[in-house]
Specification:
Layout lengths: L21 H7 L18 E4 L9 E4 L1 H13 L10 E3 L6 H13 L3 E2 L7 H11 L3 E5 H13 L11 E5 L5 H10 L7 E7 L3 E5 L16 E2 L3 E6 L13 E7 L5 E2 L3 H6 L7 E9 L5 E6 L4 E3 L2 E3 L1 H9 L4 E11 L2 E10 L7 H9 L12 E3 L13 H7 L2
Parallel strand pairs: 3-4, 3-5, 5-6, 6-7, 18-19
Antiparallel strand pairs: 1-2, 2-12, 7-8, 8-9, 10-11, 11-13, 13-14, 15-16, 17-18
Subcellular location: Peroxisome
Protein name: 4-coumarate--CoA ligase-like 9
GO molecular function: CoA-ligase activity
Length: 398
């Protein structure tokens, strides 16, 4: 962790009486006269980015010049087979690490990048694809699900045929939902390619851009990206496990962070004794090195000592024709966590809670049943990057 004797930014809690927006800066600054600052050292803090904050307060993360360059090269190598007329679009904000990388990648390739100045609606995303004709879209699971509903409801009103690549990240997508979106949104023309990354490590796994419908494994986030090593360790023993065995994903990366801002203790605790980064994610790999994500360790639920990954139940909820978005949370009982579905219903649709509970219970294992019932909400709480805000879900039922 090369942050000793380096100039660093000390961050403390302050109350601001105002702020300057990015749009106001570029409105008065002539960007043609801005010149990049040359890095004086390849190691040590070069930039600070922030984690998503979906499971707590966002963490400031130091990145070195080397880490940024390595992450960019890794991302670039996955895009080498893209059409020469590439045009990138991303729906998540630039503070998301992949947003920063995509912006830099566009500069490297000399290709246009399309970003939204505010969080876009589903129709704004579809309208922008129709109008600006991007070939590469990076977005979240919730976004493509709502795009699918909008297109199916409106008779595929928007022309999205320009898309040659659709990469989805932020949270895992189960195989059933992935196939449904490929068939109904993308009309079976191109695959959805899931990716997996972390602010601390950059791009960890992704499907190569020359993968087609026949080679992309539904439900998988792909194979390790360039410069990445992955191992899976038992949650009980910490020892490495083989193919098709679940455990914590641990990573060694050329894009490794320098550390957390003002938190050396957390930085040290984020690595095991051999220097592997503890991702906090449960997953497994197959014999052909395809990586699958089960969920976050801290988000796993238990009923009668049986482990539950909430995304499995959320995927079943999303498969119901009346459900637009969904999350699963819990309330405690003597037997463990009682699962509760938090559901946003599609406009014009009505369904009784008991019928939706029965729909789910008929499709899951006994310990995964919605014993806590269903509540309906106007919106399921998500971060700007499209990730479920689990703490806010829990607050909704209290």
């Amino acid at each position: 962790n090369n942050i000793t004797n380096q100039p660093i930014l000390k961050i403390s809690t302050i109350v601001c009486d105002g702020f300057t927006t990015y749009s106001s800066i570029v409105a008065v600054e002539d960007i043609l006269f801005i010149r990049p600052i040359k890095s004086k050292t390849p190691v040590g803090p070069c930039a600070i980015i922030y984690s998503s904050g979906t499971t707590g307060t966002p963490k400031g993360i130091y990145l070195s010049d080397n880490a940024l360059k390595s992450a960019l090269i890794s991302f670039k190598q996955s895009l080498m087979d893209e059409p020469i007329e590439n045009k990138f679009m991303m729906t998540s904000p630039i503070f998301w690490y992949t947003g920063t990388l995509l912006m830099m990648l566009g500069v490297h390739f000399g290709k246009p990048r399309l970003f939204f100045s505010t969080e876009p609606t589903t129709e704004q995303i579809l309208c922008s694809i129709d109008k600006f004709k991007p070939t590469f879209l990076m977005t979240g699971v919730a976004a493509v699900n709502e795009m699918m509903f909008c297109q199916m409801t409106n008779g595929h009103k928007y022309n999205i045929q320009s898309l040659m690549t659709c990469v989805v990240g932020g949270s895992p997508m189960r195989a059933d939902l992935q196939r449904k979106i490929v068939n109904n949104l993308l009309q079976g023309r191109i695959p959805i390619k899931q990716g997996y990354g972390a602010s601390e490590q950059g791009i960890i796994a992704v499907w190569s851009m020359d993968s087609d419908i026949g080679t992309v494994r539904d439900g998988s986030v792909g194979r390790p990206a360039a410069g990445i090593e992955i191992k899976i360790v038992s949650l009980k023993t910490g020892k490495c496990v083989g193919p098709n065995t679940e455990g914590e994903i641990r990573i060694k990366s050329v894009s490794n962070m320098e550390g957390y801002v003002n938190d050396m203790r957390k930085t040290i605790c984020s690595y095991d004794e051999d220097g592997w980064f503890k991702s906090g994610d449960v997953g497994y790999y197959t014999v052909d090195c395809c990586l699958f994500i089960v969920g976050r360790i801290k988000e796993l639920m238990f009923y009668n000592h049986e482990r539950i990954a909430p995304i499995d139940i959320e995927t079943v909820l999303l498969s119901h024709p009346a459900v637009l978005d969904a999350g699963v949370t819990v309330k405690n009982s003597d037997h463990g966590d009682l699962l509760i579905g938090v559901v946003k219903v599609k406009p014009g649709q009505n369904i009784e809670p008991k019928k939706l509970v029965s729909y789910v219970d008929d499709r899951v294992k006994d310990h995964e049943r919605l014993r806590g019932g269903i509540i309906f909400v106007d919106d399921v709480p998500r971060s700007p990057a499209g990730k479920l805000k689990r703490e806010e879900l829990l607050n909704l039922i209290q």
